Amino acid sequence: MGGINIHTLDTVIVTGYAKAPQGTSMYELYKHAGIVLEIDYKTHTIEKADFTFVTGLTKDFFERILIGYRLDEGLEPLIQTIKEHYFAPSQQAIIVALQSAVQRYWDSTANRRI
Question: Exposed, middle or buried, 76 (CB in 10 Å: 0-12/13-18/19+)?
Fold first, then answer.
């Protein structure tokens, strides 16, 4: 039987959400900006990312920004990149959702033995 050996799984899934701005497609569809990150807890590297964006282009853009990023380098470079390259009403909601997911990651893995 195929599948992954759960004893060798080195990643975790974390989520973060923030209220989407009213009047946007994101708000009309989801009400919230959401982010799901798969993170390697040994290297703190974002392996995969998914979002509640309406368009595939935006999802692809954020995947390129996030995948491969090491969270132990701090969030400020990611936040700055978002501010400099993502000009949309949902910018602040995405930043808050990202901060929430990363904080959940650090809180949840603080006592994890690596």
Answer: exposed
Residues 1-31: pLDDT tens digits?
566 666 678 999 999 999 999 999 888 999 9
- CA distances (Å), 37 to each of 12, 17, 50, 51, 81, in order? 8, 12, 7, 9, 18
The answer to whether residue 45 scores a pLDDT higher than 60 is yes
Burial group, residue 66, by CB count within 10 angstroms (0-12, 13-18, 19+): buried
Count of C-beta atoms within a 10 Å radius of residue 51: 22
E strand or H helix that includes residue 103: helix 91-109
Place of tokens 């392996």: 47
What's the fold here for domain 11-107? Sufe protein. Chain: A (3.90.1010)
Domain ranges of the chain: 11-107
C-alpha torsion sign, points 11, 17, 21, 23: positive
